[in-house]
Amino acid sequence: MRKGWVVLLVSVLVVVFGTMALAQKEIHIGVTVPGLFSPAFVEMKRQAELKAQELGVKLTVVSAENDIDRQFEQVRDFIAAGVDGIVITTIDSFGIVKAVEEANKAGIPVITVDRKSFGGEVFYHEETDNFNAGRLCAVYVAHLFKDNPGPIEIFIERLDPSVDSVEERYQGFMFAVSQWPNLKVVAEPNLGMDVGKAFDATINAFQANPNIKVVFLPGEPWLSGTISALKQLGKWVPRTDPNHVVMVGVDGDQFAVENMIAGYYDFSAVQAIDKFVANAIEVFAQYFKEGKKPPVKERYVPVLGLCPENLDFIKERVWGYRVYTEQKGQ
Fold this sequence. Notes:
Blueprint: H1 2-24, E1 28-33, H2 39-55, E2 58-63, H3 68-81, E3 85-88, H4 97-105, E4 110-113, E5 124-128, H5 130-144, E6 152-156, H6 164-177, E7 183-187, H7 198-208, E8 212-217, H8 223-233, E9 246-251, H9 254-261, E10 267-270, H10 276-290, E11 298-301, E12 304-306, H11 311-314, H12 319-328
Parallel strand pairs: 1-2, 1-3, 3-4, 4-5, 5-11, 6-7, 6-8, 8-9, 9-10
Antiparallel strand pairs: 10-12
Helix pairs in contact: 2-10, 3-4, 5-6, 7-8, 9-12
């Protein structure tokens, strides 16, 4: 009987001290993002660093500069460094699969955010409800022109179809457009994921279709080049001007907010993308410190529809507005 109690006591002590050791061990998380060309990824990195500091987690964040091969090597570097967990916002949902599989073989859990990996075992995934983000942009356009028989010509800056997030936004937009016969997409060049292509694509689209009334941006980092092109074409005019080109897009970044406040931008499907990596760090911290797994494997975060009519009411919930006011020193 005494021997049984001794065995039980030893077992309890092993569990207790094992848990304490796990809790005291410094957690190291490696994060790779596509690039810091996007204000969303810049803010994502900043919020992740704040969360890591709050939770006492060591964080290494690297930028792949929109190069999937570089991102693959970054994941390999994390594996070689023996990180506890890896967070990936991938450039290519297909191209990242082998990297995820290598992390799986090394026993390192992987969380994907914003964009999926189309293979490998993912511990947790979080992204925007991208289909609905695109759909809401089209719904806003449809209501603006509900009394206009059309055709209302639309230019879409289509991005790389292999990136699931932007492709789902495109599909959502096209689904909604198909519900209104007065809306007509007349140009949808593929810009890949190169923000530098926005200017020429916009010039070419308007030269071929001078009656375009709407521009849809599946990603607002392409806004700057689009604005430059519209200015050159003499079409960058405020919403109060009858020649105004309606601008709708997805992200909710500070440039969209700034131009909406100035009276030029019409609608943004605002993501909570700034918190995605921070949330992933929290998931890992709970897992490594307490053994808790996330209650779901995938989470799709609703967007917030931002337009001039509701800007004053919801701006405090928009990450781009926060960045905009910080940059303005307000």
